[in-house]
Protein 1
Amino acid sequence: MIKFSFTEKKDTRSGFGIGLHELGKSNPNVVALCADLTGSLKMDAFKKEFPNRFFQIGIAEANMIGIAAGMTIGGKIPFTGTFANFSTGRVYDQIRQSVAYSGKNVKICASHAGLTLGEDGATHQILEDIGMMKMLPGMTVIVPADHAQTKAATLALGEHVGPTYLRFGRPNWPIFTAGRPFQIGKADRMLEGRDVTIIACGHMVWQAVEAEEKLADMGISVELINMHTIKPLDVEAILTSVQKTGCVVTCEEHQINGGLGDSVAQVLSRFNPSPLEMVAVNDSFGESGVPTQLLTKYGLSPANIVSAVEKVIKRKKKINSRILNIEY
């Protein structure tokens, strides 16, 4: 039986919009910049109540990043908003040079990430952004799981100092983290288990919740970790869990190269080598389609997570069998 349920679905971008509006009320230094996508980023409420602190830059994302970096010099806390593809791929040079290199307190807030952008197609469905951003020195990278957690993450950024990338999405998605604590850099262990650790981020956390129901029926006990912060990564949470379960499956709406799975693999290889399987997009661009259908086509469904769990447990048992057969 699923241990988490939901009563409604909301898009994660709306969680960002609500959080930004609340920050605007509590902190007069918070300003917002948008690249001609105010409605899509749900920044309307902030714009309406704080027109003198909202800046419509137009379709000029590089300029938006440069302006935001400059605003920090005067003590402002700028939140930039556009699609994830335009927030990272189009302006990587400006982010690297004007924000990350000089450690500017800019919050790069990116909607419509991953495959679940859906019908807008491959040119807008960036699947490399987590890797691009986490490699920048000093950059914090956050990928919340639902509407409630996106709001919590946005509010947390009001107090956090330093360059940050906040990644969220377009589709309505189950809300299931309401009331749970959120702390940047501290993973949320949502389920305790003994057979396998599943580490997921973003929309894939709910996919993992659904997979856990099927795995429980199969007699497999899952420890589920919502790794909402990709950088800094909660290494302690990973090692504590894998010491108990002995194997890991990572789940992300991102390329298999460069994302959450790679970060977890680095931790395991350095501190506790263990079988690992990654549920992610396998070196491919996306396409236009219904978000949930795209997740299935590109191998990110609950069924794919179940298959990865079966595979990694089989590998764990094989390794354990070899260890037991070693003659001393």
Protein 2
Amino acid sequence: MDPPTELPTRFVALDVARSSIMIAAVDARQQVVLKPRRVGVDQIEPWSRAHLTRTDAVVLEATANAWHLYDQLRPLVGSVTVCHPLLVKLIAAARVKTDRRDALNLAKLLAAGLIPAVWVPPPDVRELRALVSHRQRLVRQRSQVRNRLHGVLHRHNLFPPAGKPFGAGQRTWWARLDLVPSEQLRVRQDLALLDSLEPLIREVDDELARLSTLEPWAGQVAFLVQLPGLGLHTAMVVLAAIGDITRFPAASKLVGYAGLGASISASGQMQRTGGITKQGRRELRAALVEAAWVAVQTHPYWKQTFGRLERRIGRNKAIVAIARKLLVVIWHVLSARVADRQADPAKVALKMMTWAWKLGAEQRAGLTPGQFVRRELTRLRLGDMLTVVQQSGRNLRIPPATPAEPDRHDHIA
């Protein structure tokens, strides 16, 4: 919620539908000063310029076009609050619901200070979130196509030659399968869909890599990529979900935002804790669980921690606990801008090199991959003595740290 520039004299609510908006307003005593009226979405901007003032406080629910409306209204009024629609329904539950009643109830809740506001992401966060969501849709479509093709193999007890079952080298094998004509058509079109989706996903990945070199992300990506289980794509998903880390005053707030906190039921003398709430950003939760599986397979510290938890609470609960712990580390490294105390400089440098290879020379600001890795290691204050890392038997050279960049080795406690 924006702090009002002046003391509000009217509290204006917008009940937003697909093609129209119901508008109503009350004063500080919750007396109706603007009877509910319907305005077309295409007319909301001229109507707002004609009827809203700097002493108005406005509220609207978080819907698909909420951010666009927010940008339109913010310069015209004292404050704009985007409210959490689920929590508002819990507060203003009514047996009789109409657009007129909803708009008035929303205005009265704003006047009473009972609106649960949501954070309004700035344009760069919205852009990244939209791109991440677009990639998720493309990947989901690719998975659906692959599942259909696997279904063909399963139904007919077919086993493709060694290698990637849907790779270019297998297309002749697929074309020669003895299938009925309609199934041959479906297989041919599914393979064509795969061929069309792969370059689209790569194009999105290239754009995510480009955004990783621009502010506000460029100064944060290294602190996430250093962590086990987090590559460039996962780091961008996490940053898109979090936005500004300073809006979480404690790690527990971020854990709750991801829906990874434990649910609690307490009444009288009885108190029980259950599974995670799952009330939060789903893509952040999914990315962390995926990263946790990689971390427990590749990093000794996380592998040991997972083994200890698995023996006590079981495999599935243990990996969720690892995801939660990993998110706590993310909060610390982003808030303090420090290296992880479990970081292995050589492994971190390899991940930075992979990041550098995904970028062009222009995106690396003219730096070679090795110089890019040194810059990011310096940002982490990590690996000042590291000049060579090995990958698949190759020695990858990194320029030495300059004397002006002393080895400070600040790590999270």
Protein 3
Amino acid sequence: MGWCPRGIIHLHSPYSHDACDGEPRNPDTGAIDENCLADLRAGLCADRIDFAALSDHDDSMADEQFQTLLLQRDDDTLLTDGGGNPIASVIHCANGHDVMLTVGGENELMPIMLDRHPDGDVQTRHDVYNADDAATMALFRSLGGLAWVAHSERRTVDHLRELAPDGMEIYQLHANLDPSIRETYLRLPPAGAIQAVAQFADTNPGGPEPDLALMSFIEPNTNSIDKWETLLGEGMHISGSAGTDAHENAFPITLGDGERGDSYRRMMHWFANVALVSDPTDPQSIQDAVGAGRFFIAFELYGTPSGFDFVGTGASAPVEMGDEIASDVGVTAELTLPTVYHLDPTLPAPSIRGRILRIDASGTTKVAEGSDPVLTAPLDQPGAYRAEVLIVPRHEGPYLGNLGPDLADREQVWIYANPIYVAAPPTP
């Protein structure tokens, strides 16, 4: 795996009815809001996102031709399959960066990286995109996509088990923001996020850096992680992703830098799903990596991680995230802790540590933990082995201004790595 493209999984364009402050179309002409679309495209380019898995609501994406949903403008390149059918588009940014876009939907289920719409008329499309069962998950796969679950905090384990998704969100930005979701599913103060972000509207000298606003309300989505680990412990292979869920419709208040709090650029700047691929220009290579769980979540508001790795060693071939091997003596999980890319040496130093967790039928067991540059754990028992990197981001303290350094002294998860799966050895 020679490339690590950074991707957004779960993103809305003006073809979602509630995007662009709930007014994504001109009420008289039906034309989409080109200014809002330009914000989305500019944000992808400014953040140098490599791939974006769009996930628009059926109202109104199901009403459109599939190619329209690829958002082609200017000199974008259309990518096609072997039959000449459009499956992705590439934005060629003014800064020289390229962004690959694919089509998906978010309703009850979240198919991503689709190759085409469901067969049938427009009403049939709406019906399929709004379905919520395992048969529809299989249908989405037959349409060339991956079958994902968004907002897993609102799902029961029983239903997730029935759906058997390719992946599920284990962190959801909208869930951390939305008052009702925070209170009902995350057991957090409902208005806590909005009150915290409002502090970053301060334009006085010494005010906090607005792009660090997420630090004021970010919390692990333990509700979702617990469900993910339950299913992993039962032997299911399910990738865990982070959902940006940007619409430019959640926090229109202008922050201290003159940009709205929920701008596409700002929200997509905070974290990415980083895939391990052989060809970052090939949509199938990216899709294969995401579907297999060959990726990790990086919260880049703390800095871009440099040097991170989580592999199995000692087998006949390297074992990547998403791979399965048989348990054996001498096969080891190896977690290489990253550093903050291009960290200013004059800033306070962050504290970084890692842990490797084994999830099996008995629950979750910590099998390695520490701040050594490389942590190891034997892969000698069946289960799903996943890794986390944690950070105390003291280097961000000087940018928090009059809020003080307290937010920078909280340990937070910097990276969630998808599991390496270990099966029981074959019976002799």
